[in-house]
């Protein structure tokens, strides 16, 4: 079961999952002290997931004008980090039941009024007899592998980082984030073309999409971009982060984390 009682090994206490009523009938927070067994299990899971990560993003963002450096704050909250990594395991295993267990009953997947688990199942074909063919596995993993940040108070987490941290000074409709270090900008949309320059994590203007190409087993279009200094060129689409692309928000509700938004567009 992916959903976990939400306590942190780092914290000494948190709000209780059960909110007892006061004399006037209102809810009031109560202390939650995890049992030693629960705390030990969560700590073991956290350590195992942390050890298995390859090239983890930093948990604090580097600030530089005109750039958007990657950041992943998930490891700062033990329970959320374990929840997210268990969800990623479910995606890798194409486990429909575990995916649905991680989703809020009122999950929002588009801006129309019809939403919720039933709509989530219908939209992503989770009632299919061939679950291995579904797009949701790669789609959601593509969101989760790109880090993200908590809201103030750590009651929600949004991913990817280039959505949650997109600066107000940049145009999300016409600009994108380059998500790699030392990314080659080429004169033409081809791996064999001359390298104009190399860039690391800039926000650039997207001028258009060119032909797709398979490089290193990855198939993406080439993107025509303009840098802040006016130079134009082409980058392989693997290194593009779209702030208005697919994005997810997770919220902590009654002591449990759940996927509450999986949206695209504006």
From TrEMBL:
<dbReference type="Pfam" id="PF08239">
    <property type="entry name" value="SH3_3"/>
</dbReference>
<protein>
    <submittedName>
        <fullName>SH3 domain-containing protein</fullName>
    </submittedName>
</protein>
<feature type="signal peptide">
    <location>
        <begin position="1"/>
        <end position="23"/>
    </location>
</feature>
<feature type="domain" description="SH3b">
    <location>
        <begin position="182"/>
        <end position="239"/>
    </location>
</feature>
<dbReference type="InterPro" id="IPR003646">
    <property type="entry name" value="SH3-like_bac-type"/>
</dbReference>
<keyword id="KW-0732">Signal</keyword>
């Amino acid at each position: 079961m992916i959903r976990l009682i939400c306590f942190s090994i780092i914290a000494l206490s948190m709000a209780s999952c059960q909110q007892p009523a006061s004399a006037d009938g209102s809810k009031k927070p109560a202390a939650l002290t995890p049992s030693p067994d629960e705390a030990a299990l969560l700590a073991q899971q956290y350590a195992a997931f942390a050890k298995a990560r390859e090239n983890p993003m930093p948990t604090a963002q580097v600030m530089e004008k005109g750039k958007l450096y990657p950041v992943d704050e998930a490891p700062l909250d033990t329970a959320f980090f374990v929840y997210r990594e268990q969800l990623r395991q479910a995606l890798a295993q194409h486990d429909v039941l575990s995916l649905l267990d991680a989703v809020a009953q009122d999950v929002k997947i588009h801006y129309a009024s019809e939403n919720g688990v039933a709509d989530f199942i219908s939209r992503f074909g989770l009632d299919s007899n061939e679950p291995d063919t579904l797009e949701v596995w790669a789609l959601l993993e593509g969101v989760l592998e790109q880090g993200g940040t908590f809201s103030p108070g750590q009651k929600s987490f949004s991913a990817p980082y280039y959505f949650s941290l997109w600066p107000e000074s940049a145009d999300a409709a016409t600009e994108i984030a380059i998500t790699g270090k030392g990314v080659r900008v080429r004169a033409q949309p081809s791996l064999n073309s001359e390298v104009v320059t190399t860039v690391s994590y800039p926000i650039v203007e997207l001028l258009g999409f060119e032909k797709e190409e398979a490089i290193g087993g990855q198939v993406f279009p080439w993107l025509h971009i303009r840098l802040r200094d006016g130079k134009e060129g082409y980058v392989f689409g693997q290194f593009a982060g779209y702030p208005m692309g697919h994005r997810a928000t997770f919220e902590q509700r009654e002591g449990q984390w759940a996927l509450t938004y999986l949206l695209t567009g504006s």
